Amino acid sequence: MAKQTKKDKVVASIDRDANYSFADALKLLRDHASKKFDETLEVAMNLGVDPRHADQMVRGMVSLPSGTGKDVKVAVFARGDNADKALAAGADKVGAEDLMEDMQAGNLDYDRVIATPDMMGVVGRLGKVLGPKGLMPNPKLGTVTPNVEQAVKDAKGGQVEFRVEKQGIIHSGLGKLSFTDEALQANFKALTDAVIRSKPSGSKGKYVRKISLTTTMGPGLKVDLAEVEGA
User: Fold this and answer.
1) What predicted TM-score, i.e. pTM, was given to this entire model?
2) Where does the UniProt annotation place the signal sequence (predicted)?
3) 230, 228, 227, 219: which is closest to 9 by C-alpha?
């Protein structure tokens, strides 16, 4: 008889058709997590939208109360006092035309790009560079703002962007498995609440159709929609 592998044991212990509570799903994922590194807990939300239509796009920002456990790299387009404030708040790179040229040369290792309104003439030239990566500053997301100091602090402190993909799915990290259960639950609630509040006018029928939890190396588990108020 062939020896049962760790993967076989994981598969045998999980019912992929079951709807788990957040707590039960998290426990199972913890039980089968790698001991070699701190995996990320991730969520996928399948929504009843077609993002090809403008009135069905779902996009926004949310501050995860427990943070992300990730070092977020932030670039800021600003001059003068605003540049100084951005640096003091922890921005990794601050500049104007010099930063634009650096990005045009392919240096785009950033998780968030922020700009003051007066810098949009410069930033606008980077549309084809930043747009495909989802990094283009946007006033609706708070990344075009005169208050760059607060925007940098928010980005560094656990604020994440969510955006529905072509298939109608939102993916997001919820933090590291080294976080407490309570911390991960708080992040889950903050994100799902924000997505529900962002329900577009064009969405008809059931909005949140499926929620799954997984880890970097783990299986996917369905979460009972009753966990999400208003789903």
Assistant:
1) 0.83
2) none
3) 219
